[in-house]
Structure formats: C-alpha cells, structure tokens
Amino acid sequence: MQFDLLDKPLVYIPVKWPGVKEGPNGEAVATEHSVEVQVEILDRVELVAWIGDSAVDTSDAVDEEAVARILAKELGSFKRVAQGWRGVKAGNKVAPFTDDNIGRIIRAPGFTDAFGAAYMAAWRGQIATRTGNSSGSAEHGQAAEPSDATRKDETNPTPPAS
Questions:
Q1: How far is it, in rounded angstroms, from Cα 39 to Cα 86?
Q2: What is the pLDDT of residues 130-153, one digit of tens each?
Q3: Distance (Å, rounded) from C-alpha 84 to C-alpha 97?
C-alpha cells in the first residue's frame, strides 16, 4: 500500500478498560468496558502540540470551579481528536456524541488513561497485540529467543532440524 501525503486518517479505535458493575446480589463484579472512538490520527507536530495542550494539573481541584475548568479542558482535548463513537449507551439507547455525554465518559474511572493508551497505539500503527505475543511458554519463558525446537511459522521460516 502506498502512503498518501494528503491522507487525514479518521479511524475507529478500540478503547478497553477495567471496571466494576453490579452483580445479581448487589455485589461488585469485575468487568471490562469497551467502546470504539472515531479519531483523527494527528501528524507528529500536531500530536506534540495536542499532548502539551492536554496536560491537566489536578492539584488545585478542590472546588467546583476548578473541577469545571479541568473537565472543560479535558472535553476540548478529547474533541480535538475524537469525532464520534460506537458502543456507548445511555440506558437502552445509543448515546449521541454530545458534550454532556462526552463529559460523562471522560469522568468514568479509567477511561481517559485507556483512551490515551489506545490513541497512542493507533498512532504507532499498533491497533492490537497479536494473540499469544505475551503469553510465553513454560519451556522458554515470555521473551525467549527462538531455538531449534521452535516450530516453523511466519516468525521462524526455517524448520527445526530433524
């Protein structure tokens, strides 16, 4: 595939983060939240500016006015790259991509960290980790070098010696 200098990539990225939900008896049950956010992949200069402009100092978030300023900055930062979403519900309906709904999701515990990590993975072209990449093996460990016993596959085109 060729690289197009005129491209302004607009893609959906998966954002997943751990959380809790109410279980059948009212107890906390671990869950994984998952949404897809449509984002613009910024060029390097825009990315550096976005990261610099996005920095939020929460040390002064002791009153409602300070919290409102922080949330407004986070909302603006999110909307700088995000254009829409999929998989966000409000009750039984699809949640529209509005400032109020965006504010609610960016306040959700863990979302902003997960979004930042997902965005940077997409920016680097690393949308998902290949299944098995970090599982390792009992014999060779997680980061073991290939050995003669390593089976032939895409990462080891030379078959084991017979």
A1: 12
A2: 333 333 444 444 444 444 554 444
A3: 6
Within 8 A by CB and 6+ apart from 111, the residues are 15, 17, 33, 105
Helix, strand counts (H, E) of the chain: 4, 5
Q: Are residues 126 and 12 in contact, defined by beta-carbon separation less than 8 angstroms?
A: no
User: Which tokens belong to 136?
Assistant: 């390792």
Contact 117, 14 (CB under 8 A): no
What are 36's strand-pairing partners?
Answer: 14, 86
Q: Where are the alpha helices (DSSP H) in the chain?
A: 44-54, 64-81, 99-106, 111-123
- CB of 41 closer than 8 Å to CB of 11: yes
Q: Structure tokens of 155?
A: 């990462």
Tokens of 93: 């309906």
For residue range 56-78, list pLDDT tens digits in order: 666 666 778 888 888 888 999 99
